[in-house]
Design a protein that fits this description.
The protein has 285 residues and is of the alpha/beta class. It is 41% helix and 14% strand. A seven-stranded mixed beta sheet has the order 1-2-3-4-5-6-7. α2 links the parallel β2 and β3. α1 runs parallel beside α2 and α4 crosses α5.
Length: 285
């Protein structure tokens, strides 16, 4: 696909530096890219320089963490004012919360007989490319593999780091309403990230979408990488019912992972794409 509105670099929990990620996206035919690192804008300047050199249009993006209904929810913001005071303040709070969360994950793993997880995860993160942000769960997963506590990263998430597990620390995130208010104040276009990944009943997912709209949300991420086609269909139905725009992206984190830049299932043709609201994205021939 020529448009990818969801990916991550070493500024958060991705494996590639922002400039390397942009070059890879270009090589794979992507011409409109949004870098949406978790709770940080740290990688945008480097990505923008690389995008200009390669004639890629880079959409400023971010994936904010928040809580709703006892679960961690992610919302994607695009084309915002990077200097908006509300956004800068929220990022500062999230930065501190991520460090506290990482330290707590390390302490919890140590209490279960896996010492040195925080320091190990940080070392793995720094080896990928130094970042001022805290190590994230993929860094902890890699540490657990290297330390021999699990066989692979999938097992690390299944046993220790996935939703509802020991390392799923939520209390440092703001509410969904607060995250949405932050993005609205920054003039962002807002999409609800991977709505099918939340382990909700049908009625609870509908309530989430209703609250998302009430808080100022604009779109559903109907397509997230190579998620099952039936999920795309279910989310498309919800987008039509609620009158929402739709977004799509690979949710790329690393080469050889579950997705690739520019690779995701087709978006149903009758749904209005969020990227049309960014203005003309391709120069006519």
């Amino acid at each position: 696909m020529q448009i990818d509105l969801h990916c991550h670099s070493t500024a958060s929990d991705g494996a590639l530096a922002p400039s390397v990620l942009v070059a890879r996206a270009h090589d794979r035919g992507v011409r409109v890219l949004a870098l949406t690192d978790h709770d940080t804008l740290e990688g945008l300047d480097e990505a923008q320089r690389a995008a200009q050199a390669l004639d890629i249009r880079l959409i400023p993006g971010i994936e904010l963490s928040c809580t709703w209904g006892g679960a961690t929810i992610h919302v994607l913001g695009y084309a915002f004012d990077r200097d908006a005071p509300a956004l800068q303040a929220a990022i500062g709070e999230l930065h501190r919360g991520r460090w506290a969360r990482a330290e707590e994950i390390g302490a919890r793993l140590a209490a279960k007989g896996m010492p040195g997880a925080f320091e190990g995860a940080r070392a793995i993160q720094q080896a990928l490319g130094d970042s001022g942000n805290a190590p994230a769960r993929p860094h902890f997963a890699e540490f657990l593999v290297r330390a021999g506590h699990v066989g692979d990263r999938a097992e690390a998430f299944r046993r220790w780091l996935g939703s509802g597990k020991l390392g799923d620390v939520k209390q440092h995130w703001p509410s969904l309403a607060s995250a949405l208010a932050t993005l609205v104040a920054a003039g962002a276009w807002i999409s609800l990230a991977h709505p099918w990944q939340y382990a909700f009943t049908r009625s609870k997912r509908r309530k989430l979408i209703a609250d998302f709209i009430a808080g100022g949300g604009h779109a559903l991420e109907v397509v997230n990488g190579l998620q099952p086609a039936e999920q795309v269909g279910g989310l498309a139905i919800l987008a039509r019912e609620f009158g929402l725009l739709v977004s799509a992206g690979s949710d790329f984190h690393a080469p050889g992972d579950w997705s690739e830049l520019g690779m995701y299932r087709p978006v149903p043709e009758d749904l209005p794409p969020l990227w049309d609201r960014f203005g003309p994205i391709f120069t006519p021939l």
